[in-house]
Design goal:
54% of the residues lie in helices and 16% in strands. The protein starts with a helix and ends with a helix. It is elongated, with a radius of gyration of 38 Å. Helix 6 packs across helix 16, helix 6 packs across helix 17 and helix 19 packs across helix 28. It is of the alpha+beta class. A 6-stranded mixed beta barrel has the order 3-4-9-6-8-7. A 6-stranded mixed barrel has the order 14-15-20-17-19-18. It has 29 helices and 22 strands. The protein folds into 4 domains: 71 residues, no CATH class; 177 residues, no CATH class; 309 residues, no CATH class; 192 residues, no CATH class.
Length: 874
């Protein structure tokens, strides 16, 4: 009962404080008067009795304070009082509050936006049951210590059947392939998988079922979006038929809306349980698998390593220099973007620190102005910790307001990041501001409040009571240490901004070098049409498909505004290409244990090189006479000629590869080198006529060089194609767009780090401007005396600018050292220059010094315009 009474009393004291205070006064008055009456009865006068009674109680106000402390609500009341006072103080200084809040909002908003991307892509598990048990199986090449994307058919079978590691195991391959459904033919993300594919992910369909063992080459599963688009609902899609090439597949299931593996997959169809190619040198199969329950990942990796060693012993010719490794699916999906995302998080973290340092500088300046207020508080009994608490509460208020506005900016920034991010970045659809991101924003706001608030509060609490309270006392009793700290913060801002500026400059120069690299072909004014026609495995039917494409090319070439057209399988920077070993007659044989040259394989139609602008150096181009029935021919690149024929003429030599046969092909031409990707050196290229390899011709890329902007011809060309052959599935893009996608990640890095660097320099210069304005105002008496004694405006300006130059120089030196120490982080991200690029260092250093002097110019100019008589009179 006493506990309940005590609790009720505390609640009343919190919510009905005035009534409880009156009750307390009445009770104390009763006790004092009762004791006084006792003393009067003992012979004292009423006045003496009351004085003795009060003395016995030890002072009414002290007793009240003691009682209030027993209520355990004084801290809450004090906090509420501090909050109310803090709001009033911030409201009375709108300029200071606005600048501080906007600076914090910028730092917190940018940091939260980047964190939302990092959280969704790197920190959150994949949206599958027990996602940490889903892995990719990859080939590891020992000589280069690198992992390939795929495994060979023979290695795949051993990993599946002999390791004992997996509870579900599937390979998958595909791309955007022509799918015919609901009376229309279109290119759709289509993947050929075995029946265990969906068991790997453990995701149940929203309608129907997944694959059974008897579904091989008969059943298909489609995405939820594809079902809605083509059939109106998931249930209505069941039992419908989709056709790929000439094979029909019955739709047996529809997957949930969020399931799209591989990226942008819409249709999955079944393959035989055994891979068709068991050759251990052809790495043709991507593999995804689920580790069996109870088996740790490290044990699975060790088991796979042991199996790889056994296979190497049994097959030294093919597996002596390679093995198989297990990599978690999430880690593999993110791939090289992991380092980019951590770089961006580090860069925005530096921006966050600069924002905190800037606000700390503002608070230190404000603390100097409020010195008399702090001294008065101390004189009235407030101890140092009470003053620190009041100032910390004000900092937390600033952090809360800045955090709220920063959260709004993070919503906008996250949407912008998703739009400018590379299109192949996985899980982009999962990036959004959720509870985790909200918690991060709250933590960032509190951390910022403590970072920029505690040190100024500590300095402001170190007050000298006598000087600030005298009539002529200084307003800057804490200015000595405060000035040194503010200068140190400004120097730190400059140094951190230099680190970001140098990083952004190096990445920007690298991106420009990557954009300007000579590719060996033109990308401007080239329309690219990905096209697919149904085909069977019969060579005659395949040749008829190639003939249909040749007719389509002639139709496209007749469109006004088209200068040239051709087809290829293996467009640079695109998909569909192949690679592997090749052999030159008299130089190499495909015998076990042979070291074979390696190159890229591309199929083309006549006129392809002229269409994309790759020069024919010697020999001839393919012609219409190079058919399946005529002698096989090939064209090689200059890089292949240098590799295999360093001192002889390649023309007339015969070459073979394992693309679809081992027929010898006579080399009839040499073309200029090309880069398959802007950041890679020219590789050995082997070109073959599409008509002589028709088995690869169902899905091609038609390139169209135009005399007008390619986009203006898309509608006309599409109509001509539909009129000429309504069965073809097409998708239009431009070579420029493909090239832009190829360098999307470097552009993403350079853009964001450069933006952060610009914001950091802006904040640092604002800090320098504010500090020098404050220091110049403090030195007005000194400057007035100097000018009264004959110093000119130029001399005064040089004093202020000289201090700025010193600050800028020290900050620049700090930034250069930090940049050198962190340069290794950029080593794998730059192209065409070193991570320590002295040109960038020199440009950034000069720019920082110039901008620092510009930030100091206004305070210096104002100082040079003062009236010495007015200053001395004041």
């Amino acid at each position: 009962m006493r506990l309940l009474d005590a609790l009720l009393l505390r609640l009343r004291s919190l919510f009905r404080g005035t009534r409880v205070e009156h009750d307390l006064e009445d009770e104390l008055r009763f006790h004092v008067e009762a004791h006084a009456e006792e003393l009067v009865a003992k012979g004292l006068s009423p006045e003496q009795a009351r004085t003795a009674a009060l003395r016995a109680f030890g002072g009414v106000e002290q007793v009240k304070e003691s009682v209030r402390d027993t209520w355990h609500v004084r801290a809450i009341r004090d906090l509420m009082q501090d909050l109310r006072y803090g709001v009033r103080v911030l409201a009375k200084a709108p300029a200071f509050t606005t600048v501080a809040v906007l600076t914090l909002a910028l730092g917190i908003g940018a940091t939260t936006a980047i964190f939302s991307v990092v959280d969704s892509l790197l920190l959150k598990p994949l949206r599958y049951p027990d996602a940490n048990r889903i892995v990719r199986v990859l080939t590891h090449f020992n000589e280069t210590n690198r992992d390939g994307q795929n495994v060979s058919g023979g290695d795949l079978v051993d990993a599946r059947d002999s390791s004992g590691v997996f509870s579900a195991f599937s390979w998958f391959y595909g791309d955007e392939i022509g799918v015919r459904a609901s009376g229309r033919s279109e290119l759709v993300g289509t993947w050929f998988v075995n029946t265990a594919f969906f068991d790997v992910f453990g995701v149940k369909p929203v309608a129907g079922r997944t694959f059974r063992e008897d579904d091989v080459q008969k059943a298909g599963v489609i995405s939820y979006g594809y079902a809605i688009d083509h059939y109106g609902s998931a249930a209505a899609a069941l039992g419908k038929v989709v056709s790929i090439d000439t094979r029909p597949y019955e739709v047996v299931g529809v997957m949930p809306p969020a399931f799209h593996f591989p990226q942008r997959a819409e249709v999955w169809v079944t393959e035989p349980p055994q891979p068709t190619n068991l050759n251990r040198t052809g790495h043709n199969y991507p593999v995804v698998a689920r580790i069996r329950p109870g088996l740790p990942l490290e044990t699975a990796k060790a088991t796979m390593a042991s199996l790889s060693r056994r296979i190497s012993t049994d097959h030294p010719d093919t597996n002596g220099k390679k093995g198989m490794v297990i990599v978690p699916l999430q880690e593999r999906m993110v791939g090289n973007m992991r380092s980019t995302l951590y770089l961006l998080l580090g860069a925005v973290g530096v921006l966050f620190l600069i924002a905190c340092a800037n606000v700390a500088n503002l608070l230190l300046a404000r603390a100097t102005v409020r010195t008399r207020e702090m001294a008065l508080r101390a004189a009235l009994g407030a101890d140092r910790w009470r003053i620190i608490r009041q100032l910390t509460v004000e900092s937390l208020l600033l952090g809360a307001i800045g955090g709220a506005l920063g959260l709004v900016l993070s919503y906008l920034g996250t949407g912008l990041l998703v739009r400018v991010a590379p299109s192949d970045l996985p899980r982009l659809d999962e990036v959004h501001v959720d509870l985790t991101v909200l918690a991060f924003a709250a933590i960032a706001a509190v951390a910022a409040s403590l970072l920029f608030g505690l040190v100024p509060a500590w300095h402001a609490s170190r007050v000298n009571l006598r000087d600030p309270l005298t009539e002529g006392g200084s307003k800057g009793a804490v200015a000595g240490g405060s000035t040194r700290l503010r200068t140190a913060l400004a120097v730190a801002e400059i140094g951190l901004a230099v680190v970001l500026a140098i990083g952004g400059g190096v990445l920007f120069r690298s991106f420009m070098a990557l954009s300007a690299v000579e590719l060996g072909y033109r990308t401007s004014d080239v329309l690219v049409i990905q096209a697919n026609l149904p085909s069977t495995e019969d060579v005659k039917d395949q040749s008829r498909v190639v003939a249909r494409y040749e007719q389509l090319i002639r139709t496209i070439a007749s469109v006004p505004g088209v200068q040239a057209a051709a087809a290829t399988v293996g467009l640079p920077m695109g998909a569909l290409g192949s690679n592997g070993s090749f052999a030159v007659e008299g130089k190499h044989t495909f015998a076990p244990g042979q070291d074979m040259p390696y190159g890229n394989f591309r199929l083309t139609t006549p006129g392809y090189f002229a269409t994309i602008g790759t020069p024919l150096r010697r020999g001839r181009d393919f012609t219409a006479a190079d058919t399946y029935e005529s002698p096989f021919v090939a064209i090689i690149s200059e890089a292949l000629a240098r590799q295999v024929f360093p001192n002889e003429d390649p023309l007339g030599h015969r070459i073979q590869c394992g693309l679809d046969s081992l027929n010898y092909m006579t080399i009839v031409g040499i073309v200029g080198d090309i880069r398959d990707e802007p950041g890679t050196p020219p590789a050995s290229e082997l070109y073959m006529p599409l008509a002589q390899h028709p088995g690869r011709g169902a899905l091609v890329q038609i390139v169209v060089r135009t005399a007008v902007p390619p986009a203006t011809l898309t509608g006309t060309i599409d109509a001509r194609i539909r009129q000429a052959d309504g069965e073809v599935a097409t998708k239009f893009t431009t070579f420029d767009h493909i090239a832009a996608d190829a360098i999307a990640t470097p552009r993403f890095r350079a853009t964001l780090v450069g933006t952060f660097a610009g914001l950091a320099l802006l904040l640092a210069m604002v800090g320098v401007y504010g500090l020098l304005t404050y220091l110049t105002a403090q030195r007005m008496p000194e400057l007035g005396v100097r000018m009264a004694l004959g110093a000119g405006p130029g001399s005064v300006m040089s004093l202020v600018l000289g201090r700025a130059a010193v600050m800028g120089g020290v900050g620049l030196a700090v930034g250069l050292v930090l940049s050198l120490l962190s340069s290794r982080l950029l080593t794998t991200m730059v192209f065409g220059l070193s991570a320590v690029d002295w040109t960038t260092y020199a440009v950034v250093g000069s720019a920082v010094l110039i901008v620092t002097l510009l930030a100091a110019f206004v305070p210096a100019w104002r100082a040079s315009r003062i009236d010495p008589l007015t200053v001395l009179r004041n």
